Amino acid sequence: MLLWILLLLLILVLFGFGFAVQILWWAAVVLLVIWIAGFALRNRGRSRGGRRYARSRR
Questions:
Q1: What mean pLDDT is reported for the chain?
Q2: What are phi and psi of 12, to 5 degrees?
């Protein structure tokens, strides 16, 4: 009986770990898409050769 309980606990732990890893993969994919979109939108207006930083007055 104890063996069955340990086996069920092991299955639950592995299932929970697999579910957590699946959630982390989806979160990583969403963050990657947001990062790529932000990178593309940030660089969209720079094709004219504009400067990134404003010149300081002296």
A1: 81
A2: -65, -40
